[in-house]
Amino acid sequence: xxxxxxxxxxxxxxxxxxxxxxxxxxxxxxxxxxxxxxxxxxxxxxxxxxxxxxxxxxxxxxxxxxxxxxxxxxxxxxxxxxxxxxxxxxxxxxxxxxxxxxxxxxxxxxxxxxxxxxxxxxxxxxxxxxxxxxxxxxxxxxxxxxxxxxxxxxxxxxxxxxxxxxxxxxxxxxxxxxxxxxxxxxxxxxxxxxxxxxxxxxxxxxxxxxxxxxxxxxxxxxxxxxxxxxxxxxxxxxxxxxxxxxxxxxxxxxxxxxxxxxxxxxxxxxxxxxxxxxxxxxxxxxxxxxxxxxxxxxxxxxxxxxxxxxxxxxxxxxxxxxxxxxxx
Length: 328
Ligand code: SF4
Ligand code: MG
Hints:
It contains 9 helices and 12 strands. By secondary structure, the chain is α/β, with parallel strands linked by helices. Helix 3 (104-114) packs parallel to helix 5 (150-162) and helix 5 (150-162) packs parallel to helix 6 (180-197). GO terms for molecular function: ATP binding.
């Protein structure tokens, strides 16, 4: 089958489906071939909705999503099947996303059967190869998911996602359900496989620590909007949005387990269906001024490649995390 080129563009504005009102309001972003793009924010911020829009699992009610220069909402038939084959998901909970009655081999081969790729013998060989790629053994194909640990099950989920030879893999909180000690292993596997297969990786996370070492670029979302977007290392070193600073302040220092600084936000985010007026973050922002309560900040370019939605982006001097702190 002919394939779409590996480039994804979501043009402004995108809106969520009616049940997720304003979940991805005014999102405007472009994801390039071969990059690892992270979308971070608290639960309910719209990051999963954004990923579903990108993969055509839901339709934008306004705006467009294009992939390879083509609008994906217009895809049908074999073009839509190609898109599904090229774009695969890894889900948060490896326990619930795997059918317990299917063997590991059948689970990994299922996408191959759905897309009619290869003979049964070729599918078995592919399963064995994929199991080895994720650090498991070919014999594991005959066993059932419950026989494996959480980390191993997520490796099985990764093998399954890679079965069709996708170009884009979307990980929706792929390691959130795992012990911290296992998270790095799974992230490392993802990174290795990304390099090996030339994947474009989109990682959704609520925890910046998870994506810190693998993301090329990061989009920080708050109440359905991107509030900061840029090169991941730059965003980590010098955040320009107070919400990003708050997320970074919650990253534990490895040696002590202590928080870097006191987390600067508290409480749950407001209801995204009726967000606060002005800047949506003003109810939790330690730097809020009068105009923040009435004037909505646009997502604007503050430096090459960096976009920030904060009135004070150029004047605040916010705390980031530098590379040297990693070794502490
Ligand atoms: Fe805080 Fe105002 Fe910036 Fe919003 S616009 S993040 S309330 S300083
Ligand atoms: Mg989610």
